[in-house]
Amino acid sequence: MRKNHVEKLKQEMLLLQGELESSKVENENLRVGQSMDPEAVKHNVDFALKNLQKIIAGANWSIKQLVAGTESLNFVTEILKSTGKISDAEAEKKE
């Protein structure tokens, strides 16, 4: 199950990287001044804004997944500590 989360995170990061590259190309086109038409500039700004919103949403999702994974690992750590304490207590009783 954890492997599926990792694979999903990897896929999401690849998508985000692709969207970021696309936004970089659009930004470079704007910098070079290939399009000074106000309508084209508005389109490019809208395109960049939509991509940034997707990137932010994806990053938020990834962060939530990482936090959830961390919380799960902390929970497992606490269980293992408790198990170790129980084992130690049982070993002392036998002595």
TrEMBL record:
Single GO BP term: regulation of cytokinesis
What's the name of the protein?
A: Endosome-associated-trafficking regulator 1
Q: Is this entry keyworded Magnesium?
A: no
The protein's matches in InterPro entries, at most eight in alphabetical order, are given as:
ENTR1
UniProt key word Calcium = no
Q: Which family does it belong to?
A: Belongs to the ENTR1 family.
Q: Which domain of life is it from?
A: Eukaryota
Can you list the GO cellular component terms from the UniProt entry?
centrosome; ciliary basal body; early endosome; midbody; recycling endosome
TM region positions: none
Query: Which keywords does this Swiss-Prot/TrEMBL entry list?
Result: Coiled coil
